[in-house]
């Protein structure tokens, strides 16, 4: 796929760049996480937004294929084999609750639901796109519940149309406010939900299905 041949509308209504966005690290190598009680969402929230405030940034970003230390806060990420899913398949954009989100290109609403359990997506919308005849799906997680009240399956969205918002905790799955943005070539039969985190044994499969969302976001992530 030649992503550069497409002109995408900014997901958050403005381009994310080094002036307004910083990279956030939730991998085990970030030892400052050891001092944070991440099962307490208020404490975790302060940890995230203190970094944004100190750096004078509106957004925090990162996470595609990142091995994360934060998923042991919830049994949502444990598999039947007790093999934790801890490799992130999307990109997170951490920002204030209520921040609007826009469709980066024309879409149809594929499905939506409230994945309401601690550590889950909370309110979730999945869009279906046509990229030169190839289907691509995009998932928007941790939204507001009211976003689900005004949409319907099959509804068309135009490029640049505002259709949802970053949700507050606890209704967003009980996370510090952020958008989980993920791309999928195949829904694997899912509706209103899709794995956002993979275990090491399933990583090859899911990394093929889920391309890097930064092709659309266009932020210069550090090496």
From TrEMBL:
Q: Which Gene3D superfamilies match?
A: Glucose Permease (Domain IIA) (2.70.70.10)
A GO term, aspect molecular function: metalloendopeptidase activity
State the organism named in the record. Algoriphagus zhangzhouensis
- Fetch the InterPro entries from UniProt: Cell_wall_metabolism_enzyme (IPR050570), Dup_hybrid_motif (IPR011055), M23ase_b-sheet_dom (IPR016047)
UniProt cross-references to SUPFAM superfamilies, sorted A to Z? Duplicated hybrid motif (SSF51261)
What the entry lists under Pfam families is as follows: Peptidase_M23 (PF01551)
**M23ase beta-sheet core domain location:** 87-185
Question: What superkingdom does the record give?
Answer: Bacteria
Entry protein name: Peptidase family M23
- Signal peptide (residue range): none
Specify the taxonomic lineage: Bacteria, Pseudomonadati, Bacteroidota, Cytophagia, Cytophagales
